[in-house]
Amino acid sequence: MGLPLARLVALCLALTLARGEELQKGEGQRAALWAARPEGTGHPGQPSADGPTWEEEAILFCQHLGQPGIFWGRQAGLRAAWGAHAPSRCSPEGRTRNHGHNVCSTWGDFHYKTFDGDVFRFPGLCDYNFASDCRDTYKEFAVHLKRGPGRKGGHPQVEYILLTVKDDTVYLTPELAVLNGAKVSTPHYSPGLLIERNDAYTKVYSRAGLTLMWDREDSLMLELDSKFQNHTCGLCGDYNGLQSYSEFLSDGMLFSAVQFGNMQKINKPEVVCDDPEEGQTPESCSEHRAECEKLLTAAAFKDCLGLVPLESYVRACVQDRCQCPSGASCICSTLAEFSRQCSHAGGRPGNWRTGTLCPKSCPGNMVYLESGSPCMDTCSHLEVSSLCEEHRLDGCFCPEGTVYDDIAGGGCIPVSQCHCKLQGQKYAPGQQITKDCEQCMCNAGRWVCKDRPCPGSCALEGGSHITTFDGKRYTFHGDCYYVLTKSDHNDSYALLGELAVCGSTDKQTCLKTVVLLADKKQNVVVFKSDGTVLLNELQVNLPHVAASFSVFQPSSHHLIVNTAFGLRMQVQLVPVMQLFLTLDQAAQGRVQGLCGNFNGLEGDDFKTAGGLVEATGASFANTWKVQSSCPDKLDWLDDPCSLNIESGEADGVPGGTWGWVEVRWPAPLGARLLVCRNGRLHCNPVKLIGEACKAPKIHVDCNNQTALTIRNPRPLSCQTLAAGHYQTECVSGCVCPEGLIDDGRGGCVVEEDCPCVHNKGFFSRGDKIKVDCNTCTCQRGRWACTQSMCHGTCVIHGSGHYITFDGKYYNFDGNCSYVAVQVRQGHLTGPLAWAQRTELKLEDKHRVVIQRDVGHHVAYTTREVGQYLVVEASIGIIVIWDKRTTIFIKLAPSYKGTVCGLCGNFDQRSNNDFTTRDHMVVESELDFGNSWKEAPTCTDVNATPEPCTLKPHRRSWAEKQCSIIKSPVFSACHSKVDPTPFYEACVYDSCSCDSGGDCECFCSAVAAYAQECTKEGLAPPTIFCDYYNPPHECEWHYEPCGNRSLETCRTIHGIHSSISLSYLEGCYPRCPKHRPIYDEDLKKCVRRDQCGCYIKGIRYLPGASVPTDDICQSCMCSKSSKVICWPEEGNPGSASLAPCCFWSDWINEDHPETHGDSGDRERFDSVCQAPEDIECRAATEPQLSLEELGQKVQCNVSFGFICKNEDQFGDGPFGVCYDYEIRVRCCLPMEE
């Protein structure tokens, strides 16, 4: 049993009084503890039969009454911040609350404060272990320091600091920062490490969970992540949450501060350094106590009293005043440390400094503040303070109403005076610049732009490389006439291009002919590769001017065509035929063809005439062929340079199968085969295949002019009908008779029965498919789709590979923190106007919740779906994380056009996705990415790394491994999802990972492609899920495409996302018929009646109390998972002053952890002060009694529930408390 409440309160008072004495006089504290001990208990430090010592229980209880929870330190990882309501059981401390228990510090005249709150003085001048990771296995960090005597009789100064974090060693002096033996300038960023310097501090941040701050004089602060609890040693103590223990009181032995400090000495063979000896405090020191109390309780520290133990700093101040009586400056360090600790504790100290008391000066027009945000708004980062992850501290700051001018160097200025910056050039407020498509003016550090008439351009280069009007690049090796671009308004004009094989393989193609059909096909202008121009089959001399177009030849290498309908053509003739188009802005969204639809959205450039977007260039281009007799071409996934290792080209090889091509000869020669033999070309006749046609098709012989005059079947297909029929030349072969159309599958159909094509698949009339959140139906060869607004998705994977909300692919491999997506300023209205109250960090394969003190509440849920962690907020944000290097961010349609960041602006225009923080659209990925760095001090990325070039030994391995993406393993997916960008990203990432994690990088890259395939309903290769199956059971199975039929306790109660996440890859249960519902919380299959009740998204298990607005009515979740209510006993209607009694909701505010002396402690203070009864149970197995659970716990109406991990050793394999919850019965007097 635990200590009685009165005895515990007495012990708290005894501890408080004992802490008022110097640790050098530790017997006072020890005596106070001894006097307050329970009767029958042994010597301090001696464990009782029930587990912990009575001292430890007392200290834990006192800390539980007055100390804060866990503060999560600064670490790298993906963060999501919103105004969310976190359940009370998941409420770690936020950055603005007390995190002093994560901080160790030293200052002034040899003063130290441990992580656990002990303040002591140790006058050592040797090298000491300030704090280290002291686990027996892998040690993550160590901090050593050396003090030297003060200058001119002042306080001793910290001469240097030696910090080791994993593989990095940082050496700091007041003047230098040295990393791994090389001097670095600040700020310095390297993987997982940041070193920066400002007017007040030198700071080091590490992703390992460490922050170090040094004022380059006598003050040093170290903040650690809570994962290091109970794992440290050194002058900062063991970080176990217990004062004195293991530092000054261990195994019954008491150590003085000097003894403890000397034990932390770093012995160097070549250095002789004497240990300090015990000293006596002069009696005259007490005369300074009143002065110190007055200073530390001044009005400036009003917000600090009660947050920071005053007595410790009064004693330190008295010691300072006594050791250095010559002036008030001796106590400045302790006053400053008290102020800093106040900020750590969540307080806001005022400006206690004066012109005569510890004055501070700042450069320029900056002002000194005791508690300001270290993330100072600047002209380039106006909103950085709102995203700040750091804690408030003292230093020089800009006055209120100003920002720091980090562009022009003007100090602190009003925002209206901020310059703008573009490509390294500064622009004053009001200055204007003109770009191709915008005219912009600098206004308050941001560009205000308006659109200018901006033509689009399309290029067909090298006979296969196409760049659309919206900037999408793809390669297509065609062999037919194709629609390059055409007007979708009355078919007023069209531009066709003939691609043909011109080399030794069908992957060497050339542009042979360009055909312009103007004036609704009344004028046909043909441009040949030899420079010949034909108008309606007659050769014309240049220049030629007609009513709707003109052609002239400025040089022997080029032809220029201008039209009256806004199309301008430049035809290059030498060395090969290439085509460059320019189209007026008025045609935006009104054209189709291989050049795309010119609507500003790169992601839908592969939209066919049938109405859907194809996945690959070949499947898209095949839909725009003009001649139905042309075969469809395939995507070529091989490296073109692999044809010839030496030259990267394929040359004709005499005597082999190389060097032959099929050539269409003018009738009546027919088809011929051109073969290279013995250095000479030979033409062999080839018999046409299919001269006997399968009914109902008929054979057409272009050589038989008589037959053509009798019947003139049109060589139409459903595909060319959708693209638009354009007669080119007669092609012999099998065609459908009049009245029927080739269906593309070998048959003939009437137009109404034309099939639809999507991603190389054929769909019959009436077939339906799902495209995102819409349903499309095949009608007359075209798709008719519903028009629902869908969520947008941004994908970030691997080493900086991005797919924006609007479908733009790009790479940006930065080296610090960046804004992926945020709500744009000026759009914080209505339901989107939420402040950032809750911050979620996704790191180390789990989530961390950080609560802020201010902001609105917005509900959110987290859940495991397959191998992914899904976080969903009620404001329309979903984050899906594979717990490695891939993240999916989904936004509701209501966010369209209101966001910005590395994920783009979600306005269905990808050509403006590269909008910088200062509102300028740029072309460079580097300019764009650098603008979204979170901190202005982060250095810019100046070049895109080429890891395979820097590490050529990795290329062959990377290409071999990543070739699986283009291999038959994923062949079914190649027509659904273009593998090329994922293969390139895989090679990039696999070359990057050469110092460990090779397979991790490779597997994550392949998984990114597999996930996209899964979304299309295709199954990637399998994995095994037996890990999740209990012995002799096979309930869990790998589902590469997710489990779309899985019902969960949440989904049957309507607690689910507005969009489906069932496609996510991973292990899923296949629940048996007698337990058909999956319980996501208990992670097992259950009956429907075991799911419990869900009220406002909160779950209540069967038998649990359900909250009600009527305090004298009780409600509970019945065994059938129905909410039932009844009048509570003691209803105020039955007696005038009868008590109203009720059972509280189940309370589960604490959760056990596997490290340290953690456990589970539940209190009832928030419900009532003196409950009449209490019930305790396991949170996940509520049906089991405490005896059946078999753990040593305490459930008492006087203090609540206590379970300690250390009590469980020997009772099971893990020695960890289960998660428990309590409820109490409260009775309140009620008037009639």
Automatic annotation (TrEMBL):
What highest taxon heads this organism's lineage?
A: Eukaryota
Q: Which residues form the VWFD domain?
A: 102-274, 456-631, 792-939
Q: Which residues form the signal peptide?
A: 1-20
User: In the UniProt record, does the keyword Glycoprotein occur?
Assistant: yes
* Chief subcellular location: secreted
Entry-linked Gene3D superfamilies: Laminin
One CC-aspect GO term: extracellular region
Keyword check for Nucleotidyltransferase: no
> What Pfam families does this protein map onto?
C8, Mucin2_WxxW, TIL, TIL_OTOGL_Mucin, VWD, VWF
Q: Where in the cell is it found?
A: Secreted
Which keywords has UniProt assigned to this entry? Copper, Disulfide bond, Glycoprotein, Repeat, Secreted, Signal
- Cross-referenced PANTHER family, in alphabetical order? EXTRACELLULAR MATRIX GLYCOPROTEIN RELATED, MUCIN-2
Please report the name of this protein according to its UniProt entry.
Answer: VWFD domain-containing protein
Organism name: Equus caballus
Classification from the root reads: Eukaryota, Metazoa, Chordata, Craniata, Vertebrata
